[in-house]
Amino acid sequence: MLVSCPIPKLDFDTINLGHGSGGVLTSQLLDAGVFRLLGNDLLDKKHDGAIFTLQGKVAMSTDTYVVSPLFFEGGNIGDLAINGTVNDLAMCGAAARYLSLAFVLEEGLKMEQFWEILQHIKAASEAAGVQIVTGDTKVVERGKGDKIFINTTGVGEVHQKAAIGMENIKPGDKIVLSGPLARHGITIMSHRQGLQFETTISSDTRPLNKIVLTLINEFGKDIHLLRDPTRGGLATVLNEIAVGAGLGITISQRDIPVEEEVYGACEMLGLDPLYVANEGLFVAIVDASVSDQFLFQLKQWEHGAMACIVGEVTNEHVRQVLMKSNIGGRRVVNMLAGEQLPRIC
Amino acid sequence: MLVSCPIPKLDFDTINLGHGSGGVLTSQLLDAGVFRLLGNDLLDKKHDGAIFTLQGKVAMSTDTYVVSPLFFEGGNIGDLAINGTVNDLAMCGAAARYLSLAFVLEEGLKMEQFWEILQHIKAASEAAGVQIVTGDTKVVERGKGDKIFINTTGVGEVHQKAAIGMENIKPGDKIVLSGPLARHGITIMSHRQGLQFETTISSDTRPLNKIVLTLINEFGKDIHLLRDPTRGGLATVLNEIAVGAGLGITISQRDIPVEEEVYGACEMLGLDPLYVANEGLFVAIVDASVSDQFLFQLKQWEHGAMACIVGEVTNEHVRQVLMKSNIGGRRVVNMLAGEQLPRIC
Questions:
Q1: What is the pLDDT of residues A303-323, one digit of tens each?
Q2: Fewer CB in a 10 Å sphere around the end CB: N or C, chain B?
Q3: Tens digit of pLDDT for each residue in A212-222?
C-alpha cells in the first residue's frame, strides 16, 4: 500500500481560497504537505525556481492532467502526472531528471484527497527516479475548476546514442508496439459508465523511462522514432507519423494485442481499441535489421510479454495508415475525429 | 496595437471537447492557431517534447495563471503567463530561454478570445526574448474550468556572476525596491469592483530579465537575493526573506514608493499596498557597499525612476519585519493572512 503517512495537522478540512493567496495559509499548506512529503535539496530552497546542471542535449516536455475520476483501477491523477511527463521525455530519448509540479485546486477540495494524491506523486516520482524541484499552487472558486488539475513539466538528458526523429524513418522500418491496447481508456470509461467486468480491467499507467533508455542504449540509431499512444490512441499516433514522415504505414489487425476482457469492454461500449488512450505503452519505429532482436529484448521487460511487431513503413499510400483486417480486407485507419473520451488524462 | 493577425478560419466559433481529444480537432486548432502563430524550429517538430542545449547552471520555474478577468488595463493572462515565468527565472539569476505552454480550456471559450490571448503570448515572448518550445492543450466541460488557465514552465541559464541565495544575506545589506507598489493588484481589484478612477491605473506586468541580468553582470555577488513581490505583496516576500535568512528586516514607510492614485484606490478598497500583488517589480537585497551605485543604475532603466532603498537587514528582531511608520512609530509587518485578492495571477 502506497499511502502510509498520516495526513498532516492543518487548520482546515478542505482547501479554501486563502491556500492560494501566497501568504500564511499557502505557506502552511506547503510546509505541512508538499515540502514535508516531496522535499529534496532543490525543492527545500523554496525559491521561485530551482537550479541544477544538465549535460549535453536537454529534452523538455509539459502536460496538464485533468483526468476524471481522480482515482481509478490501477492509478490516479498523481501517478498519471508523473508517469505521463516521464514518458513524454522517454519518447524524446531522454532520461527524465527534474519535474515541476503545479496545482490548480478548486475551493472545497478535501484536504484528505489532496494529501492522498500528494503521496501518490511522491511514490510515482520515486519509482521513476525523478525529483520534483519547483512548483506552484493556485486555488479557484468553487465551480470554476474540478477538484484538482495538475501540470508537470519535466527536463532530462537525451541519451547520447538516441537519434529519434521523423526524418530518420524509412520504408521497410518495422512498427513495434510494447503491449496490449486500450487498458487506460477502458478503465476510465468503465468508471464513468459504472460498468463491472468479471475480471478487473486496470489502467496501464507506468513509467517507461527505464525500458526505453535500456533499448536506446542497445539499439541506438536503429530506433528511428518513439511515441506513446495516449490521447487519440494508436490510430492517431500512426497517422501523425505517416504525415510527419511523408510515408505510408501498413498494420495488421491480427498482430495488434488487445486483452480479451478489454476487447469485450470495447465491444460493449462501442469503442475501437485503436482509438482508446493508453498510458503505459510505446510505439517504436525500428530498422528492419534489428526488429526481431529489439522485440526479443522488449519481451524480457516485465510488461513486455505481449509486445508485437504490428506493421511496417512503406513508400506506398503516402501519409495514410492502412490496416489489413482479420478477414483479409484492407481499410484506411484515420486519425481520431471529434472526442471519444473527454478528460482521459 | 499588438493584435494584428486575423483569426484563422476554423470550423467552430467556440472551443469544444473535441479540441482536447488529441485527434483531428486538436490538430486543426494547433496547426491553424498555436503552431502558425508561435512556430519556431523546436516547436515545429511537434514531438512530445523539445530538445535543445543549455550551458552551465540551469534554472527552472513554473506557474499556472488563473487570473480573472482575462483582460485588464495594461495586460492580460497571456502577458502574465510569459512575464511571470520569465521574471521568476530572473529572480534565480537566470536568463529565460525556453518555455513550455499548457492550456486548460473550458468548453465554450470563444475562439476569438483564445486567438487574442495567443497573440499576446506571442508578443510577450518576443519582447522577453524567449521561445515557446513545447505545449499541451486540454479541454474541460463547461462549468469545470473558467475559460482558460495557462501553465508556463521555463528554463534558462544562470548568469555566471550570479550568487543569489538566502545564505548570502547579511546584516547591513540594503533592500532595494525597483518601482512603485500595488499597481497590478489594484488594477484587477478595480475591474472586479467596477471602479473608475480619474487617472487610469494599469498593471505593471513586464519582463524583468533584461534589467536584472544587466545588474547581475555589473554587481555580481554583491546582489545577495532577488525576489518579485507578486501574490502576498512586498510584506509577504520580506517575511519569507527574514525567515529564510534567519535575520531581521527594517523598512521605512516613507521610502516605499506608491503612486498617488494607487494609494487613493487602496484607501478606497481598504487594502494595504504592502500586501497587494505586483507583476513587474523586484526586490533586491544588495551589499551596502554597492547599494547607491546599484540604485543609480536601476534608475536608468525605463521603469526604474521610482526605485528606492526601502530598508535594511539587521541582526535584531530576527525573523521579523519591522516598519518605521510615517509618524515615527514602529510596527511588525506580518505575512499576508487569509486571502486578499483571489486569482490575481
A1: 999 999 999 999 999 999 999
A2: N
A3: 999 999 999 99
- Strand, coil or helix: what is B167? helix
Residue A17: predicted pLDDT: 92
Helix ranges restricted to H, A270-304: 291-300
Backbone phi, then psi, for A334, in 5-degree steps?
Answer: -90, 170
Alpha helices per DSSP H over chain A: 24-29, 36-38, 77-91, 111-128, 183-193, 209-219, 233-245, 260-269, 291-300
| A209/B contact by beta carbon, under 8 A | no
At how many degrees (to 10) do helices B260-269 and B183-193 cross? 50
Q: Which of A329-338, B135-144, B151-160, B332-341 has the least mean pLDDT? A: B332-341
**pLDDT attached to residue B194:** 81
Please give, rounded to a whole number of angstroms, the shortest distance from the CA of A288 to a CA of chain B.
Answer: 23
| Below-50 pLDDT ranges, chain A | 1, 3
Tens of pLDDT, residues B206-242: 999 999 999 999 999 999 999 999 999 999 999 999 9
Beta-carbon separation of B339 and A50 below 8 A: no
DSSP, collapsed to helix, strand or coil, labels residue B221 as: helix
The average confidence (pLDDT) of chain B is 94
Out of A21, A66, A102, name the one closest to residue B339 (CB): A21
User: With an 8 Å Cβ cutoff, is B55 touching chain A?
Assistant: no
Q: Which residues contact A116 (CB under 8 A, 6 or more apart)?
A: A3, A76, A78
The mean pLDDT of B308-313, rounded to a whole number, is: 98
List C-alpha distances in Å: B112 to A193, B9, B75, B142, B211: 35, 11, 17, 17, 34
* Cα separation, A185 vs A166, whole angstroms: 27
Provide DSSP, B229-266: --TTHHHHHHHHHHHHHTSEEEEEGGGS---HHHHHHH
Candidates 3.40.50.2000, 1.10.10.10, 3.90.76.10, 3.90.650.10; CATH matching B166-332? 3.90.650.10
Distance of alpha carbon A64 from alpha carbon A184, whole angstroms: 17
Q: What is the arithmetic mean of pLDDT over B44-73?
A: 93
Distance in angstroms (rounded) separating the CA atoms of residues A140 and A12: 16
Q: pLDDT exceeding 90 applies to what percent of chain B? A: 81
Residue type, B192: R
Q: Which strand (E) or helix (H) includes residue B82? A: helix B77-91
Contacts of A24 in chain B (CB under 8 A): 334-338
**Would an 8 Å CB–CB cutoff place A147 in contact with chain B?**
no
- B1: pLDDT confidence band, cut at 50, 70 and 90? very low
CA pair distance B299, B167, nearest whole angstrom:
27
Q: How far is CA B226 from the centre of its chain?
A: 13
Regarding pTM above 0.90, the answer is: yes
Q: Cβ B236–A23 below 8 Å, yes or no?
A: yes
Q: Domain ranges in chain A?
A: 17-158, 166-332
What is the four-CA torsion angle of A263, A319, B48, A163, rounded to 10 degrees? Answer: 110
Instruction: With CB atoms and an 8 Å threshold, state whether B91 touches A64.
Output: no
User: Prior bond to B69 cis, omega within 30?
Assistant: yes
Contact criterion met (CB < 8 Å) for B101 and A62: yes
CB contacts of A62 in chain B (<8 Å) are: 100-102, 134-136, 151, 153
Report ipTM (2 d.p.).
Answer: 0.95
Q: Do A52 and B62 touch (CB under 8 A)?
A: no
Which of B29, B137, B153 to substitute to test the interface with A, most A CBs within 10 Å?
Answer: B153
Distance CA B257, CA B204 (A): 14
CATH architecture of B17-158: 2-Layer Sandwich (3.30)
